[in-house]
């Protein structure tokens, strides 16, 4: 080890002011030890607004568990933006993300990525993973919420003939349904998988149903699609109102035996749950090192405020789970948009994605 360190020191002296990694990065873009990267190996257009990007990660990546997500960094106009994406490939395979174009970063990824492009990465994380012991499963997904569940199905169904998985997936129309053909083929091939597509704009598998929103405010739709849903370990991922309804339904209707994690319904959210009306009066936010300031409302996350005025803000999940956005507070008070709590001591690390100004705020960035 000490010989390797000595060699690195010599290499550093020879290459100063650049590091050996800078030169390695020119030869092999995945070789940088400073920032985990991946090279795009395949791009598949899934629907009119969704694209799967397969990539080969470089040194430092750890294999993902089915259902986990990773932070992905993309450079747009010279600024690196980070977002989180579920890994849609089966565990044990090279990773892939499936991105739906809805905003600046996702549109750049979904529409602008090509084979050979480099993605900046962070290692996979997240607890939305398959149970440790086999159980009958119900997967409840809508729109792009299918992506982590697709990884679970691809991982579990072909390998475990004893699996018992029911998927209820809601999409607007058949052509908007992600991975539709693959799911139907898997369901044909493996009796352990039952797939129900629910089309909100057209009739689906059950003619008396669909053509309307999947209603989770009562158990009726689930009783029809999956009569034993109360006995299954359930996983749900989709828009906020879909997940809120599912949570309430399970709390009301399925208070039975808990699984090993204590949860009968496990949820993955793509956006934070903010308490309505938590925003206060806002204030002037000063980004000291960047020499920028902006007047913002009390419901605007400090992360958005910084990005709006051109400050390069660290970020990741943008929903209060990964802590990549922690920024030291120099002065002032902030409001947690999830709880309404006002807090802030000098030097405190603030999660800028879920906190807003509560009066004038100074941040050390
Ligand atoms: C754990 C996790 C996993 C995720 N996995 C995926 C994934 O597999 N595929 C994917 O496309 N996105 C996924 N996302 C969302 C992704 O990180 C971005 O938020 C999304 O791509 C929008 O980024 P943007 O910069 O294009 O738009 P922005 O301008 O940043 O966001 C636009 C708005 O859309 C909201 N939003 C985020 N995701 C969705 C959504 N799916 N549907 C509707 N509104 C949304 C955001 O909260 C924001 O208010 C995931 C997010 C998290 C936290
Ligand atoms: S960006 Fe993940 S906690 Fe703020």
Architecture overview:
With 365 residues, the protein is of the alpha/beta class. The chain contains eight helices and 17 strands. The chain has a six-stranded antiparallel beta sheet with strand order 4-3-6-1-2-5. Strands 12, 13, 14, 15, 16 and 17 form a six-stranded mixed beta sheet that branches. A hairpin with a 5-residue loop joins strand 14 and strand 15. About 4% of the residues have low confidence.
Q: How is the secondary structure organized here?
A:
Elements: H1 2-15, H2 20-27, E1 37-45, E2 50-57, E3 69-76, E4 79-86, E5 96-100, H3 104-112, E6 118-121, E7 137-142, H4 146-156, E8 165-171, H5 180-189, E9 193-199, H6 220-225, E10 233-237, H7 240-253, E11 265-268, E12 280-287, E13 292-298, H8 302-308, E14 326-336, E15 342-343, E16 349-351, E17 355-363
Parallel strand pairs: 7-8, 7-10, 8-9, 10-11, 12-17
Antiparallel strand pairs: 1-2, 1-6, 2-5, 3-4, 3-6, 12-13, 14-15, 14-16, 14-17
């Amino acid at each position: 080890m000490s010989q390797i360190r000595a060699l690195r020191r010599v290499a550093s002296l020879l290459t100063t002011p650049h590091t050996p990694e800078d030169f390695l990065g020119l030869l092999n873009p995945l070789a940088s030890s400073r920032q985990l990267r991946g090279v795009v190996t395949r791009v598949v257009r899934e629907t009119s607004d969704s694209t799967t990007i397969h990539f080969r990660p470089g040194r430092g990546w750890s294999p993902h568990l089915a259902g986990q997500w990773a932070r992905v960094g993309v450079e747009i106009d010279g600024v690196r933006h980070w977002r989180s994406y579920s890994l849609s490939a089966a565990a044990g395979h090279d990773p892939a993300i499936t991105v739906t174009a809805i905003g600046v970063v996702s549109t750049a990824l979904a529409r602008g990525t090509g084979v050979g492009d480099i993605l900046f990465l962070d290692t996979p994380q997240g607890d939305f993973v398959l149970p440790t012991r086999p159980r009958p499963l119900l997967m409840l997904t809508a729109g792009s919420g299918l992506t982590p569940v697709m990884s679970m199905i691809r991982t579990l169904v072909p390998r475990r003939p004893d699996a018992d998985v029911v998927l209820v997936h809601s999409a607007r129309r058949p052509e908007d349904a992600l991975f539709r053909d693959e799911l139907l083929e898997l369901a044909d091939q493996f009796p352990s998988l039952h797939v129900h597509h629910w089309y909100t704009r057209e009739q689906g598998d059950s003619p008396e149903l669909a053509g309307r929103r999947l209603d989770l405010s009562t158990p009726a739709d689930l009783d029809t699609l999956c009569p034993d849903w109360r006995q299954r370990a359930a996983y749900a991922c989709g828009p906020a109102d879909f997940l809120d309804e599912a949570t309430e339904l399970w709390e009301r209707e399925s208070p039975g035996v808990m699984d090993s994690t204590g949860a009968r319904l496990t949820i993955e959210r793509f956006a934070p749950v903010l308490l309505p009306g938590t925003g206060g009066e806002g204030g002037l936010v000063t980004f000291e090192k960047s020499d920028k300031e902006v007047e913002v409302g009390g419901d605007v996350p400090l992360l958005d405020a910084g990005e709006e005025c051109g400050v390069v803000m660290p970020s990741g999940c943008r929903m209060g789970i990964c802590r990549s956005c922690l920024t030291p507070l120099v002065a002032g008070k902030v409001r947690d948009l999830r709880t309404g709590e006002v807090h802030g001591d000098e030097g405190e690390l603030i999660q800028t994605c879920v906190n807003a100004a509560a009066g004038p705020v100074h941040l050390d960035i």
